[in-house]
Amino acid sequence: MAVLTQPGSGPMIHLPGEDDPQPPRRRRRRGGHPAAAFAGYAVLVFFALVFLYPFVIQLGNAFKTEPDAAANPLSPIPSVLDLNSVQRIFDGTDFPLWLGNSTLVTIIVTLGRVFFASLAGYALARLKFSGRRVVFGAVVAMMAVPPVVLLIPKFLVLNQLGLYNSYAALIVPVLVDATGVFVMKQFFESIPVSVEEAARIDGVNAFRMFWSVVLPMARPALITVTIMSFQGSWNELPHTLVAVQDPALFTLPRGLADLVSGSLGKGSQYPLKLGAALLATIPVAIIFVVFQRYFVRGANEGAEKG
Amino acid sequence: MATDVLAGPDDPRRAAPAEPPRRTRRRGGTRSGETAAGWLFVAPVIVILGLFMLLPILMALWVSLTDWNGQGSPFTSRVPLVGLDNYTDLFTRDGLARQNFMTSIRNNLYYVGIVVPVQTALALFLALVVNNRMLRGRGFFRAAFYFPSVTSSVAISVVFLFIFANAGAVNRLLALFGIDGPQWFADSRGVLHLLLGALGMDEPPRALTSGGPFGLAWWDWLSGPSVAMCSIIILVVWTTSGTFMLMFLAALQQVPETLEEAGKLDGATRWQRLRFITLPSLRPTMFLVLALGVIGSWQVFDQIYVMSQGDPAKTTLTPAYLSYRTAFRDFEYGSGAAISFVLFLIIILLTLGQRWLLRERDSGRRLRRRADRSGAETGRRS
Q1: How does this protein sit in the membrane (chain B) (predicted)?
Q2: Which residues pair with B66 in a beta bridge?
Q3: Per-residue pLDDT tens digits for B228-238
Q4: Would you give the end-to-end CA distance of chain B in angstroms?
Q5: Which residue did the predictor score with more confidence, B368 or A99?
């Protein structure tokens, strides 16, 4: 639906020029042509609706009765405020369990990824050891391995190691990600060496150097990697599919997927599903609002700059 | 997902600053100390990536040569070795395995063919609008467009299942315009077939009903994405455009304002400036976005798992989902692993192709930039 209508896209492109007969254009006019500005806002508002209205629908319908949601799916406002579905998310499903599992897994995975990525990133950027190039080459190669083709392979290893169906299976295989290592290495390379050299004269050992001298300077990169890890781990579905099958070990995405595939029994029960999905979205949404610029950086990280 | 396979590492300029001036030479102990520390620091990464990426790939390669059914260990002599059968079943031997695999390839080809151009165009368009300096509140709109990209694919899929339900929001919206919406997730009709039907061609021409490549009739290859697949395509375009918009925005901010100014002085209209100044300087980013889009589009899994499980009539089956289903639903791990490896090969070839082309592009760009410094007619060259 996003591509069907783009009101104002025409006027957006061939802006002033034609309409106003060559006004003296000496100064850069901040305000621009009012019609052009209007068209610009029209486009922005239209797409803001396209991108945000599904969330509005989700929010509204989570608080409707099931017949109400079925009859008025477009309306963001419930005709009667109904908290039954929200209530049943907690009483009638394993949602609290999934929430607990997701929280546990996400915290450990995020801490692990940030720590290991910065440790390795620092070594690859600054420590001179034979084999460094090979290791970095391997890390870069790993970044190119598409996660979906690893599903069966990961299952095989977890099965062979006897880890299948355990918290360890949910956590250990994803405790390191190559992209994080890459991001940290790039960042450490951008820090001037002089600080370390000063500390080196004081005879600080490698770990102390990393932990108390370099890491505190790496705050922006650390936040970026933390956010990437948190978001990736919180939203992860495929890995859980091949790591566990015991419902007691389900995380939120897995539990939600299970709800959709019919573990609820009768009826579509959309208000409940939408509510559960909404609750699963809230943590990432909060972090997104607070740390928006780091998300932006994460998205562009590594995307080459000339 | 998309940001994993980025271009950077090949860039020789990256490695340069890593070499600090060698003034610590005089202390011989530093180097050996650094070697130990270096390996210690990278050890966790090596162990975990080795144990959960490299080793599994080798194990799966072995399993793809067997008929393991999930019972016991696949690495015993009791598991029948079948050689390359699992692979030939996908390509040369007529049967259900090939039928399914080729159907999934067809589906994914249409998926890539629509998702990539549409999301790229939409991302570029949004970036150009958001980059417009005379508009206020751009930060808000940028965040709004990007927000779907950061949310859980499963949660979003739940929302879209509701929105695309038979009497759901989308069909209500269409009804406002007098359009009778389809039953999205139950509709396996191919879009191209529908178009041909609308032109009066209800029956497939005799020549196309059989004999297509790889055991799928030409008529089936030419179906277009099914209506059900279209709803997944819409969902994916909606979630990923924001990420790519950010990439375009970052590139737009690098376009020197002096170029724009020069264009204005030369009396170029806004359209001309866009066409001859802005777009040419976005080319490397455009290329990156296209490449990442293609690579990412071959990995679509979550949405299929949650929304359609390959149905209706296998029209949303993709290789990624098929490999999962073959292994974990049908317990044919060998066949599933073989599908994974074929998919792996497709993606790796695309990635290598992208890196190779990007390198060409990069050096080309540097040359061009050098030329631009002296030249006036920047854009004409495109």
Answers
A1: Multi-pass membrane protein
A2: B81
A3: 999 999 999 99
A4: 31
A5: A99
- The total of structural domains in chain A comes to 1
* Most B-contacting residue of A51, A124, A286 (CB-CB within 10 A), to test interface: A51
Hey, where are the domains in chain B? 85-190+225-381
User: Taking CB atoms and an 8 Å limit, are B37 and A13 in contact across chains?
Assistant: no
Q: What is the structure's pLDDT at B364?
A: 55
The CA–CA distances, whole Å, from B123 to A14, A305, B131, B250 equal 19, 19, 12, 12
Whether the CA torsion B206, B211, B216, B222 is positive or negative: it is: negative
Domain residues for the domain of A196 are: 94-251+279-300
Rounded to whole angstroms, the Cα distance separating B359 from B107 reads: 31
Mean pLDDT for A260-267 is 68
- Closest-CA residue of chain A to B138: A44
Cα B58 to Cα A82, A148, A184, B52, B53, distances in angstroms: 53, 16, 28, 11, 9
**A144 → closest Cβ in B306, B337, B351:** B351
Question: Residues of chain A with pLDDT > 90: what percent?
Answer: 36
Average pLDDT of adjacent 10-residue blocks, chain B of 382 residues: 41 43 45 78 91 90 86 77 84 84 92 94 92 82 90 92 86 86 81 81 73 78 88 94 91 82 80 83 86 90 90 90 92 90 90 76 56 44 37
* Composition of chain A by helix, strand, coil, percent to 5: 70, 0, 30
- Taking CB atoms and an 8 Å limit, are A305 and B254 in contact across chains? yes
* A218: CATH: 1.10.3720.10
Token pair for A178: 């190559």
Task: Give A241's contacts in chain B (Cβ within 8 Å).
Answer: 305, 324, 328
Rg for chain B (alpha carbons), in Å? 26
Rounded alpha-carbon distances, angstroms, from residue B359 to B15, B90, B249, B283, B366:
15, 34, 22, 13, 11
Interface of A with B in 155-174 (CB under 8 A): 155-157, 160, 172-174
Each residue's pLDDT tens digit, A107-154? 999 999 999 999 999 999 988 888 889 999 999 888 888 888 889 899
Contact assignment for B155 to A253 by CB distance below 8 Å = yes
- In sequence order, the 6+-apart residues with CB closer than 8 A to the CB of B337 are A152, A153, B60, B61, B63, B64, B86, B323, B327
- Cβ atoms of B310 and B325 closer than 8 Å: yes
Amino acid sitting at position A101: N
Tokens of B281: 């300087």
CATH 1.10.3720.10 is the classification of domain B85-190+225-381: yes
